[in-house]
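Suppose a colleague, Dr. K., hands you the sequence of a protein chain of 557 amino acids and asks what its three-dimensional shape might be. Before reaching for any lab equipment, you can write down a predicted structure in token form. Begin with the sequence itself:
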Amino acid sequence: MIPELGFLFHQMESLSRIAYSHPTHLAYTGPRVRAWVPSNFLSFLASVPEAVQLQILDGSPAAVDLPRRPEAFYLFLLYQIDKELSKISKPKLLDSTHGTDFLMVNDFVSGSGATSHSTARALTISLAYSGFQETNRYVRFSQILQKALCGKTNLRSYNKKSGSHETIVQRKVATSLPRTLSLSCACAGRKEEDGLTYWRSTVGTEDHWLPEMIEVELSEDGGVIVRECQRESQQEQPEKWISCSTSSPIPPSVSKLVQEKRCLQKNHKYRYQLDAVLSFIRDDSDMADSGHHVLHIRVSNAYTQFLLSEQLKELDRLAETDWVKSAMFAPEKTLNPDVYRKRAQRVKEALNNLQKSESSSAGSWILANGHSVQESAIEDARAFHVSFKEPCLVVYRAIQEHDHKPEQLPTVKAEMPPSVMVTRSITDGRPPKYAVDSDSLPGKGDIIAFDAEFVSVQEEDSSLTKAGSKVTNREVRHAVARISVIDCKSRKVIIDDHVLPQERVVDYLTRFSGIVAKDLDPVQSPHHLISTRSAYLKLRFLMERYVVGRVRADFAY
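The predicted structure, expressed as tokens, is then:
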């Protein structure tokens, strides 16, 4: 999962790096910069047993309803990445930043049974709205969150002492606080009485129910206190913090158990800032699950500076390139170098303005709606008073007080093992024909040649308009079916593998690729056949050597 996600994030950052340098206003029929479709990641996801079991895949008859599917997918990602990182990171990276410890204490109401307790750890926290409907008072976000962190439920359990089933009170109390507080809203696609009523309420005429700033404190009596910052209608008014704590006192026996679990924790109080909100937008349809998801997310100034710096490097490189002498084909050569210099100057000005800005270091907000990404505002992220918008996920990030030093987060350095180069064939388990030991692989200054063949896994779907122009409804999609790499110095073949696509092949493109159905048959293929993941890991291993050893690669398609 981690390599696939890393490649996905790399592609998105690369789009930002090259988008400003690519010509868009000139008449040109060559390739364009386009939004990257993560088909490889989705294909890999379908092969993960945990993803199938958690019912997060489109097309599954038991899949979670569309409005709440991102909540299940987010939880799957956290646990899957945490599981993979646990092999190379101690303590586990995501667990140390997202994990919240809970203590569950069970007490019989009659007092005749023994008290039992257990512990649990969660990477996300689900909000619950039961118990608030009985009150006619205004219910705040801090009250809902406080109950999720410190609540009690009446259950039935067998009492060995009395020999019968009796009512028990189960208390679930947080004993630690995460740096990243991920909340599953648990109400998208539900009826109004299942929580949406609270989200659609407002305070006064200008503020929204979801607060921008909250504080969570583990109190000395074993409870949890949640405070929310309420904005006043007049901006010059000071911040107003509203506190919410446990409505009923915690029994001394429970308080003692909680304090014993909390004594090892360093931080008993965090102030959190809203960082991301994922929402479900309903379409104008009578279907219950008709709609799509949008994401409001805060982008830090530091990350914006990084992206602008990458754009500047690319523009400077293009401005200094002699396209007349260069044999490299690229659509950028259709522009005059002066165009790149002017663009580079604008990026420099944007960088300087960002560095001189006296605005908050919190950053700016953007809205991701499908392939459209645009500037937004925190008020849009917090607004749920409209009937077509429903909350799915909310993420808060802990911020440091001025008198506290930032905590050092654990770091992870993962390197691809050389063993990925000797993957055995799916057909008969034999090792690769052109296995090369790690010491003989290309190093610094070496040149390698790479070639790949592809097959189609999705046909094009198009139609003609009345004017006779072609409209593409669904584009053709390819999957890699063979990879070959040669060390140009030694003229040795490093890799020559056929690759089994994870999707059904609709066209082997034999006229171009030379590949026939038997070549990719996992039962009778005469070639060294490997999975798409194994092919990716091999190329990733060579690229990591390129980053470390600066291997030069010539690509042929």
